[in-house]
Amino acid sequence: MPRIKTDFLVLGSGITGLFAALKLAPYGSVIIITKKSDYESNTNYAQGGIASVFAEGDKLEDHVRDTLEAGAWLCDPAAVQVLVEEGPPLVKELLNYGVPFNLEPSGKFDLSREGGHGKNRIVHAHDRTGREIEKTLLNVVKQNINIQILEYHTLVDLITPHHLKQKGLICYGAYVLSNHTGEVFPILARETILATGGAGQVYSHTTNPKIATGDGVASAYRAGALIKNMEFYQFHPTALYHKDGNSFLISEAVRG
């Protein structure tokens, strides 16, 4: 059984995993694990865009209020504040990486509006924003000599003191399954980042892709991590349903 060592292990190849890998690469070796092809993630299916404050006259506090109202005041206010405040500089980072967002002739973002927003806030790349972000970040990742992507490898479990008959909440890496050979082997890491997405596939009907199987959430739970708000899964408000085939998303922009 092979045993691989790396400085950083990133579980998931969506926007979170790829962005994390790029941030970590200057500090050591990075391995990204994904159970399908490297571009297959929830990010790849996102169409509409990213809500962020760039419009003249828009304010961070307005975005916070709109988000809390749209969430029926069930959102964590602290998390919403972080999302709104850190959003604009991170969107600019994506632009600097080369994501082809729609721009006005002046060079400013061409902002659209979606449901729940009182101002134009949606930074987008036509109606395939997620796909363009995924494609761009993957291209940047593949040019980085410190980052390796292992496709078709599934997370089995996190390696914790529990496996060594010890107490404590420390993670030493993960056991992964090669989908091609059926072999399970450990990848040891100084730091492990969970970026595995959700578990929409636990429901009979979901607008999440087939890869949203909750591997990371289940592994974190078994390792003793605190998980909460597990009832809040996204059911996309606009989708075309067919009983004999996969439902596919229609951009939220159709709601106006």
Structure in a nutshell:
With 256 residues, this protein is of the alpha/beta class. It is built from five helices and ten strands; from the N terminus they run E-H-E-E-H-H-E-H-E-E-E-E-H-E-E.
Topology summary:
Elements: E1 4-11, H1 15-24, E2 30-33, E3 50-51, H2 60-70, H3 77-97, E4 122-123, H4 129-142, E5 147-150, E6 153-159, E7 173-178, E8 184-194, H5 215-223, E9 239-240, E10 248-249
Parallel strand pairs: 1-2, 1-8, 2-5
Antiparallel strand pairs: 3-4, 6-7, 7-8, 9-10
Helix pairs in contact: 1-4, 2-3
Structure description:
With 256 residues, the chain is of the alpha/beta class. It contains 5 helices and 10 strands. A 6-stranded mixed beta sheet has the order 5-2-1-8-7-6. Strands 3-4 form a two-stranded antiparallel ribbon. Helix 1 (15-24) packs parallel to helix 4 (129-142) and helix 2 crosses helix 3 (77-97). The mean pLDDT is 90. InterPro entries: FAD-dep_OxRdtase_2_FAD-bd, FAD/NAD-bd_sf, NadB, Succ_DH/fumarate_Rdtase_cat_sf. One of its GO terms (molecular function) is L-aspartate oxidase activity. This is L-aspartate oxidase.
